[in-house]
Amino acid sequence: QVQLVESGGGLVQTGGFLRLSCAASGRTGGGYAMAWFRQAPGKERAFVAAITWSGSNTYYTDSVKGRFTISRDTAKNTVYLQMNSLKPEDTAVYYCATTKTSTSAGYLRLVSQYDYWGQGTQVTVSS
Fold it and tell me: Residue 41 — left, alpha, or beta (φ > 0 → left; ψ -120 to 50 → alpha)?
């Protein structure tokens, strides 16, 4: 019912920057929040950032605070993740996700909270 397509990944050096985009299509009405997760090789999928459609409240995992910024363009049904001061530890496949459930902020960090997922975009940070 909802399709999510990520783009903007690539290979950058330590200290570089990238902007990821996630375009939503289909039955997007009623969406509550969108988020970015990432998964490094051999690791579990981990929360990065989330933003609510109403009020534009943002949430971040501690390791990216001050470096990453999540934003949205409601008219375009698109969410962005601006990533600055990239580190090798940021290397992962980045996934966009959306939930239609209004919930407490803490639950937005959980993979199980989200209904739809994109295919992912690779981000590689070289040292």
Answer: beta
